[in-house]
Amino acid sequence: EATIWLARTHLQLGRHRRALDLLDSDALRNAPATAVEPYRFWRARALFEAGSFDEVIELLGRIDPSDLAPSEAAHRYRLFGRSYARVGRHEDAVRAFELFNQRFSDHDEIPDNRLNWAASLLELQREAEAAEQLDTLIERYSDHPAGRKARLWRATMWLEAGSLNESAQILQPLLAREGRSDQRAEAWYLRARIDEERGDRDAAVEALARGRELANSRTVRFRGALAQAQMLFQQEDWQPGMELLRQVVRTAPDHPSAAEAQLLLGEALLNQEQYGEALRVYQDYLEAFEDSYGRSEALLGRAWSLLGLRRPVEAAASFEKAYALHPDVMEREKALFKVADAYFDSQQYDRAREEYLVLTQLFPGSSLVPMALFQAAESLARQRLVDEAVQEFRALEDAFPNSSYAERAAFRVGGLKEEVSEWERALAAYNRLMQGYPEGALYADALHRRGMIRYRRGLFTEALADFELLVTDYPGHPSAEQADYMRGWCLYLLGESDAALEVCEAFIRRYPHSRWAPDVLFWLAAYHYNRGEYDAAEERFVSLVESDPHGVHAPAALYWAGRAAVERSAYLDAIDYFSRLTQRYPQSPLMPEVRFAQGDTLSRLGEFAGAILAFEEVIRRYPSHALADMARGRKGDCQFTLGSESPQRYREAIASFQSVLDSATASSVLKLQAEYKLGRSMEQLGEEEDALTHYLQVVYDYIEQRTALGREGAVWFTRAAFAAAGVKESRGETTEAMRILERVIEAEVAAAPDAQQRIDRMLRRAVGDS
Fold this sequence. Notes:
The chain is mainly α. The protein is rod-shaped, with a radius of gyration of 49 Å.
């Protein structure tokens, strides 16, 4: 008896192992028969505390209740019921609890018994009977711990049934109690769930904070902190939530809640793309905790953090460890897939392909198989193994025709054929996709790609049809904007300028901020310029610069705004545009044209000195540019004009025109022009013989190269011939003058009638003189 009493004392102190050791000792082997049943009962109590529930049930079954004291007999039923519940035999548990209730209706443990009874009924999904037991507890034992717990359970049942008001009402007495307790904390946590269901998350956060303040045990307090952090994350209030989790980890780093907090904190940091901090949190978890599920989750989080930090090779190793450790099959599939993805991201395409294919072999029924096969084929494509990749994409289509990856594979085939400029095969691939997946997600993309290929191939009518269909049938598609833009170009290239204008104007109204808007605006301005509508052209060019000052078209728009201003004789405006261009875009490749245009405009304003400086800059800074030779000639023109004030300028003009003649890059027409102007400059200096030589050189050169020099050459030929004839005539050498003019008539140029009139005039004068 003393041994049993000592064992009972150890049980009261929670020392169930020591109690078992005593009950199994030699002192009880030869116990009298009267002690056998009590011995068995208390041994069963000790086994229950040790978690050996099946042994408890077997041992209790061997006890004759009549040999037990009344209190022990009552507890036998309770012990039976609780053990049955622990091993999942809830029907037997319900019978045991019911018998206890019937036979010991005045027992102190009736409230606890009813609570256990309700728990087993809930496990059996007999909610109505469970509710009856809980309601009885609430009614009869409102101040008993079991009664208070019944309130929590009943409120939870109302909550899960969607009866928020009933749940809140039955919970209110617990919320209104005084003092700290875990049950009050649990009540506030439940109130937070009610507030959340009502959509009042702020109130839910406050309820969780209130519950945390009232909790006695760290476990309950930490559970509230975790729930509050998750609620704050749902509200995207990240910093307070993360601080709560850090507090849990700091306060009790060895507590099970700390492990959960660490994982939640890592997940929150990942969501905030704080990959370095997330990596540290997951690494700390791996060093501190040993549970396999948590470690596998931490390994996954660590891998995602490494991916975010662009360390894919390390991420692959972490995903591989998570794959080996994770107990969930679907998570293992995902981890293995991410191993392959990480190698893919690191451009180790052979290794990535190998891992994708391993997944298809180890998990042939996985929903990830089509994606893995797609990525395996894409790994070949990234290695420029186009034919092999196309073959595998088509095999994927055949193997999984109903998968979204089948359509993606068909689309990728078209893209690969485009990359190697196999345009006809690319078209065939897109046609095949459109025929095979007329309702597919990529139909519009294929239509767009087909239109672009047709456009590049010069099939503007067919391309226009594709773009029209895309704009009409898929107005919300990402490619619809570009298709709308391309319609204008197709119409323009088909010669339908007015229709192109209409489409482009509508495009700007529809997509004023489009990436293609500057292109369209520039084209519209150029359209007006080419039609001689210089006011409208200038306005549009300037508007483009103002709306997109850093855009690719801005320098050219300023240049053409200046050209338009020149055409309408607004030379000062033109100078302003050209000056703005040189100040804002000094590195623009248009600078030679700009400087030349500045010189041209200044010369029109009569500011020849300034014009000469502009032309000299073109010659000096861009000597190999096509405009350099023209700048030499225009510089000579300005110097020639200034010669009326300073004859020395004619010498400068002669040097400039000679530099054109000496240039290896000047065109034949430009040299013809320079030769004529060189003679004209010499004539102004009174050097008639030298001037005549140059004039005649122009005449001879034109006659020899008449076809090549064309109409522009004919202009300088005519001027040179008339000038040479004038010199001859002034010397009295009329015959030679008429002979030169006869060359003009023989050349059948536009000035031939004028040449004949001059000859006739010379003849009349000669007759009159004679």
